[in-house]
Amino acid sequence: MRVTDPVISPSSFVSASSQVVACDLAEGAALLDLSSNIYYSLNEVGTEVWSGLQSPCRVSDLEVTVRSKFDVGDADVERDLLEMLIDMNRAGLISISDGPPA
User: Fold this and answer.
1) Residue 87 is assigned to a structural domain of this protein
2) Could you tell me which of 73, 32, 19, 28 has the C-alpha nearest to residue 49?
């Protein structure tokens, strides 16, 4: 049986895994997943998103932040952000839930 990705929408809550540490770089950041010892690199936009994930937040709030800091269209932000969050979830870097943390 194939495991499917969780449904993620603008109202979903997302947060960074406590098993990931980050280090700022000149034009982005490097992430290290302590559970797998795999490094990931983020560009400037990804670094901004990662910063927002340090406490649980709604996807829609991340969209607002990205739109306010970068010159990108609304449809592009939503599509690209959802894609990035799905990829981060598949890698075990974040968690996704339907409601705020208890």
Assistant:
1) yes
2) 28
Asked whether residue 76 is assigned to any structural domain, the reply reads yes
- Could you tell me the residue range of the domain that residue 73 belongs to? 13-18+44-95
Return the structure tokens found at 72.
């990108």
Give pTM, 2 decimals: 0.88
Domain-located, residue 27: no
In tens digits, the chain (102 residues) has pLDDT values of 345 677 899 999 999 999 999 999 998 999 999 999 999 999 999 999 999 999 999 999 999 999 999 887 778 888 999 999 999 999 999 999 887 766
DSSP, collapsed to helix, strand or coil, labels residue 6 as coil
The total domain count for the chain is: 1
Q: Which three-class secondary structure state does DSSP give residue 41? A: strand
DSSP string, 44-93: HHHHHHHHHTTS-EEHHHHHHHHHHHS---HHHHHHHHHHHHHHHHHTTS
